[in-house]
Design goal:
This is Sulfatase-like hydrolase/transferase. The chain is α/β, with parallel strands linked by helices and about 675 residues long. Helix content is about 40%, strand content about 10%. Strand 14 and strand 15 form a beta hairpin. Helix 1 packs across helix 4.
Length: about 675
């Protein structure tokens, strides 16, 4: 026993050093935490919060257990080698064990996590896996056979110890079987009334462009989404108010423009009064169990304050930013997607921004565990899937070589994976009997610019360049891009479908979703003045509900951070960090108030009504702002340097929008 303790302690120390060095060598995040040996004030503030301190304890405990696991495996291999080869020196057996385990881990990590920083070439990975895996398998078989023949474990305690030992060594196998350990939650004692109100299920797919589906083009990229659309009522002319996730979902949940709730950007704090009037509260009062789940909380802080009984997904706050991507080691990656990862690494488990280890199937299993079977009350369920968001890669994403259309290929592949995830969720909802009587709404929070030229926003050329070298990258970066602001919106009624499916000509916005459902369910929003309107008449027929102006604007686009479709430089990352502060109470990252006021001055504003398009561009280097206008029909695009030169129709649009966004657009 003394020999075991000394040997295990020696292995443990070596393994700890190796594990820490691998994190420092392979993790680019280290450079961000220790720039020139000075920790940025933002990170200093984060370490002072109880939020981060709590998850740091889990982080270190989890890695300590992982190191113990590796040490135990190394000790077992070295002792087995010594048992069969007595002439081998202990130090050589130990070195051989380290090499076997290292080779096995590198091989597995490269194959299962191809985008990890800790990988080798794929042929080398398979060679490592076959050789080290074969040797370890042979050693294990002979070890077990020898112990059985010699009756080494004859007593029950010894046999249990033997079983625990091998169970510990096989712990990573549970990474892909977590659903066995989770029991679906219940919704309470409320019961359905005689009218049996339908379940309300909102499923958002981040960055989903309608032109990549059959809604606008005949494409087979998204077969599950297309199958849904074939039996749904769709609104092809739907726009998001701000092409960023948090403002878009604030608009969905409040039925208003997001700035009415004090949300002009991601990571801002909504007005408490607006939160108290968020529409999920009305569904709760009507007897609904309200539930929200997402695999991305880094920039979209949707929580219970919006009226949800429960919220699922990864940890929200500084732990997500600072710890989630730190788990990219050949050893810890094996554990993140399982029960162990859910307990000790909740900031990485089911977390889409931790893209190297994110497994879409793990998030579906997480949903399966959280959503009730045969709920006793009607359920209001909102799910947001962030898989097609930049950087468009995830655990199993194929490696794409650098080509001119690399971004389009990556986006298309991520969209296909999200489509599979969407199909799995629909199947899961059906198994839980949640689709027997339900409204299911498929939506996207924004689109995505994939490198198309901005000077052809609607497939037409304009009569003058807007800004030299403008390319349509990302989302929320330019109101001149319909690819960023045109979104998916489709309603499907399960169980009692009496509506004619197909597309509707009614222009819509995301704020219309819940007012439409509330009118159908006869839920009164208690006199709240909503910006969204009910689309129910358009659902029932092809009636145009309202001819109105749809207004949208850009998100946060700091001038010292340039996103050109490639990697952001370290200096730009530091500049981005300086924009935020840490909430000391809950550890959440927040945009500084002075930054909010400053960046509002650089926003672009756009509006559209029946083909008429008007936009106010961001200031140029001289501080001048140009107006961009297109008349109805096939008219040419125009640029106006002054409000006074705008056509009469444009001025009417401008004054109408000024009622919703005063002191910004009005001259």
């Amino acid at each position: 026993m003394v020999t075991f303790k000394k040997t295990f302690l020696f292995i443990f120390l070596i393994f700890t050093v190796f594990h820490i060095l691998s994190m420092f060598i392979f993790q680019p995040s280290i450079a961000l935490i220790l720039p020139e040996k000075v920790i940025p004030s933002l990170i200093q503030d984060a370490f002072k919060t109880q939020h981060l301190q709590k998850y740091l304890i889990l982080f270190f405990t989890g890695h300590l257990i992982i190191i113990c696991w590796g040490s135990l495996a190394t000790y077992w291999m070295s002792s087995t080698i010594l048992h069969f080869h007595c002439a081998v020196r202990p130090i050589l057996a130990l070195a051989g064990s380290f090499f076997l385990l290292f080779s096995l881990l590198m091989g597995i990590n490269t194959i299962l996590f191809p985008h990890s920083q800790v990988t080798v070439s794929k042929p080398t990975a398979w060679l490592f896996l076959l050789l080290s895996g074969g040797i370890l398998t042979i050693l294990t078989i002979f070890k077990i056979r020898h112990d059985i023949q010699t009756k080494k474990y004859r007593t029950l305690p010894a046999l249990l110890l033997y079983g625990i030992f091998f169970a510990a060594l096989s712990l990573p196998q549970f990474a892909y079987m977590p659903s066995f350990f989770f029991i679906p939650s219940e919704t309470g004692n409320r019961t359905l009334d005689n009218e049996k109100p339908p379940h309300i299920i909102l499923i958002g797919i981040d960055s989903l462009r309608p032109d990549f589906t059959t809604l606008l083009h005949n494409t087979e990229i998204t077969p599950h989404v297309n199958a849904f659309l074939n039996n749904a009522i769709a609104f092809p002319e739907t726009y998001t108010p701000i092409a960023r996730t948090f403002p878009a979902w604030v608009s969905i949940l409040t039925g208003k423009y997001p700035w009415d709730a004090g949300v002009d950007f991601n990571l801002t704090v909504p007005d408490p009064e607006a939160l108290a009037k968020a529409l999920p509260h009305d569904f709760k009062k009507a007897g609904y169990f309200t539930f929200f789940a997402t695999d991305e909380k880094r920039f979209s802080n949707i929580d219970e304050s919006f009226g949800f009984d429960a919220v699922a997904g990864p940890v929200m706050g500084a732990a997500d930013f600072l710890l989630a991507t730190f788990n990219d080691t050949a050893l810890s990656n094996l554990f993140i997607n399982g029960l162990f990862g859910r307990i000790f690494f909740p900031f990485s488990h089911t977390n889409r921004p931790a893209h190297i280890t994110y497994d879409p199937a793990t998030f579906v299993r997480h949903l399966n565990a959280k959503l009730p079977n045969n709920p006793r009350s009607p359920a209001f369920i909102a799910i947001h899937l962030c898989l097609p968001h930049y950087p468009f890669i995830w655990k199993n994403a194929p490696l794409i070589t650098d080509t001119a259309d690399k971004r389009v290929k990556e986006y298309t592949l991520s969209l296909q994976a999200a489509d599979q995830q969407f199909g799995s969720i629909i199947e899961m909802l059906e198994r839980k009997n949640l689709l027997e009587n339900a409204w299911v709404i498929l939506l996207s929070d924004h689109g995505e610019g994939l490198g198309e030229p901005l000077h052809q926003p609607y497939g037409k050329s304009i009569n003058a360049p807007l800004r030299q070298g403008d390319i349509d990258w990302g989302h929320g970066t330019s109101v001149l891009s319909p690819r960023q602001y045109r979104v998916m919106l489709a309603f499907r009624r399960y169980g009692q479908n009496s509506y004619e499916t197909g597309s509707r000509r009614q222009q819509a916005m995301l704020a219309d979703i819940l007012p439409t459902l509330m009118e159908d369910l006869k839920i009164d929003p208690k006199g709240v003045n909503l910006d969204g309107i009910s689309l129910l008449p358009a659902l029932k027929s092809h009636h145009i509900v309202k001819d109105r102006i749809l207004f949208f604007e850009t998100g946060l686009n700091p001038k010292d951070i340039h996103f050109n479709g490639g990697k952001i430089e370290k200096a730009e990352i530091y500049a981005g960090m300086s924009l935020y502060t840490i909430n000391s109470q809950n550890g959440r990252l927040l945009l500084k108030s002075n930054v909010i006021e400053r960046e509002k001055k650089y926003k672009e504003y756009g509006m559209i009504q029946n083909g008429h398009f008007l936009a106010l561009l961001s200031p140029d280097q001289q501080g001048s702002r140009n107006w961009f206008y297109r008349q109805k029909g096939n008219a040419e695009f125009e640029i106006h340097e002054s409000f006074a030169t705008l056509p009469h129709e444009a001025i009417i649009m401008l004054h109408e929008v000024g009622k919703k966004r005063p002191n910004i657009l009005t001259p």
